[in-house]
Design brief:
The protein is mostly helical. The chain is built from 9 helices and 2 strands, in the order ααααββααααα. The longest helix has 30 residues. It is globular and about 70 Å long.
Length: 257
Amino acid sequence: SVAAALEARAKAAPAEASPDPAMMLYAARVARGDARGAAAAALIRARTRERDAMRAAKEADAATGSKRELAATRVLTARLEAHCGALLVVVNALRLCAPGERSVALSDEDGEGFDDDKKETDAAGGKAAKRRRVPGRGRATLADLLREYALAATRLELLVAGADVASLGFAEERALPTAAADGGEASSDDARAAVVPGLVAACCAHGLFTAATTLATHWTEGEALTNLATVIAATLAARAALAQIAAGGSGARPTSL
């Protein structure tokens, strides 16, 4: 079908493809009133933009010399902006869905939501049956995508605020060792979560307290969230005290004898 052909082209298309087959598929599904299908098409584009941003981050990490570093940082800023925009399209499409429908099936390269148990066999013919999709597995929910957006948007804000590329945690995310308990590789969420404390600290250092709070609340909970909230609050209090001192409004004023 035309939709299947467009989807195949979208998954293989580079980020700079014009016209973008993923957005053509997105527009066709929006016209049909298929918000969930439109979100799935937009997610293909978001994943392409994400890979583009990761490549740009790797090049920026390796850049040497002020001119090359500046050029690489500009490219990374543009790629992160494109990634954030692509994620917002997915998020907005999912928000148009019914509450129980706000999730998108992941593509093969993201890890399809198939049952990992042994294949069932047909009692009559003895043939292996197709693997069954498991509800709730292999899907990206609205909450998942909002977490991704919070991370990408925080990195973009830090770059715009003048932070070094090294402080964005891309290198740490790429270098995360395989440490899953079952012997498999650590998930991409594990890699992303590992860099969140460093990003929160970088946000505090650059005065981006809203971004720090948003990132912390999307990616952590319990004691980890409490610890990050303490860091944010302490930094805010220290900045406020310093500002008050600079303005001459704190402490007891000397009195004449």
